[in-house]
Specification:
Elements (H helix, E strand, L loop, with lengths): L2 H14 L2 H14 L6 H12 L4 H10 L4 H10 L11 E6 L2 H4 L3 H12 L12 E6 L11 E3 L2 E3 L7 H5 L4
Parallel strand pairs: 1-2
Antiparallel strand pairs: 1-3, 3-4
This protein binds FE2/S2 (inorganic) cluster.
FE2/S2 (inorganic) cluster (FES) binds next to helix 6.
Length: 169
Amino acid sequence: MSNEAVAQQTATDNEVIGPEMYRKIDAIIEKYKDKPGSLIPVLQQAQDVCGYLPHIVQRYVAKGMKMSPSVVFGVATFYSFFTLVPRGKHVIRVCLGTACYVKRSEEILEKIKDELDLEVGEITRDKKYSLEAVRCLGACGLAPVVVIGQDTYGDVAATKVMDIIKKYE
Ligand code: FES
């Protein structure tokens, strides 16, 4: 991310994370702060409150749990179920694992990027979609695979993928 993009994201984070969210995070921290090894559930619940785990929330949790921000950052970035950027209403995951890659899943990804005007890891301006590239979704027999929200689509053609995506309003 460029410095400008980071500044813009921080401003957005400050707008999104309001006092009510901080109150809820306080309650989560209060519940877990004396329990060893409870950072992951605290971060999971904080993510449920905010929808994602921006740096300001990571720092807030670190302070509340009396931990180093770098430890919290390490955990937040290690586990794939944590996201540091906002996710769209519908998360699109395109598999770039070997079985899908040889069936040209890269073309599917490029098509989505072009059509929705976004990069991997980004969210559309209307917050409807976010795009992720993943390594094997465990459905190699269906390659190439795209997952939208909880729905798995197999044998997807780049020329048809937008027809699928547009069903998600
Ligand atoms: S490589 Fe795509 S589902 Fe396994």
